[in-house]
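Deliverable D5.2: sample structural annotation.
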Amino acid sequence: MLVFCLCFYLLHGTNNSAKNAHVLKPHLYDTLYPVIYNALATSNGEYAFRTIPAKTLKVKLIPNLETRAKMKLHKIDHIIGVHQFFLDHDLVSGFVHPFTKNMFDKLQSTQFVLKFTSTDKNKMIGNIGYIRKSQLTKGDTLGKNIAYFRQWRLSEIDYKVEKGIVYIHANPCNFNKRCACPESKLTGNMRQIPLWQKTEIGVQPLNKFNAFGRENGGTVALIWEYNHEIFFQDIHSSWSEILERAIEVSKKYRTDPSIAISDAGPLAYKLKANRNYELNVSAIDALAPSGKRFGAGYGYIQGNNK
């Protein structure tokens, strides 16, 4: 259903200094509940989106390439698209790369993890939500029903507001020297946030980060607690849209939301299924052609959040 949106689901974008970047247009949307897509695709066919804020939503898991081959799985059906890729782990096969396990072990007890609760016999359809690491029970296992996300609280992002204008600190990306990445106030490998943009380095107005495309923007899960309940919202868009939404959440719910990122770089690219809610796995394989490590994730099931 195409809808015109003027306020809550607005995606911003007025400046496009990056070559071949796509500036989000705040007018036309394609709503496939619980996902709201920007109806205008980038030049390579990618759509920005955000989900409704929720405590739980129903998804279908997507296995990695090696597992899909073993299952002889040629298409993923009953999904709207690919909405998150996991960072080197797979909730279908149980594979977890040691790199991911090491980062998961370093999570603080108050930080968030994604929990998947299966609702079908094949254990590929179920509900996702977020809990704090301290809430894990004996049966919760990374790669089985728990997924890891890198995360930064909004208060840890190196930004400031002056005369109503948001400024962000950016430095050259460690993983893509052509781009700049926002910085956090943390040290070590958590200082740089893997959301890139082709722009100048240094302190920049946030509207310098409003382009969206293959080397601009990325995918996050915003996570916050309100009245002792944990809410989340997936956003695939420009860095300016992501940070503006995080600031909006902080003001509306008087909280310090977490900006959580699973896989990034080329796997920040997301795929939209056809109108029959089917997605050919060859499109995923083209993004993530390596066996166990890449290509696992999830997609939302249209119209079903129970």
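Annotation notes: DSSP finds four helices and 22 strands in the chain. Confidence is low (pLDDT under 50) at residues 1-21.
The annotation will be released with the project's public dataset once the embargo ends.
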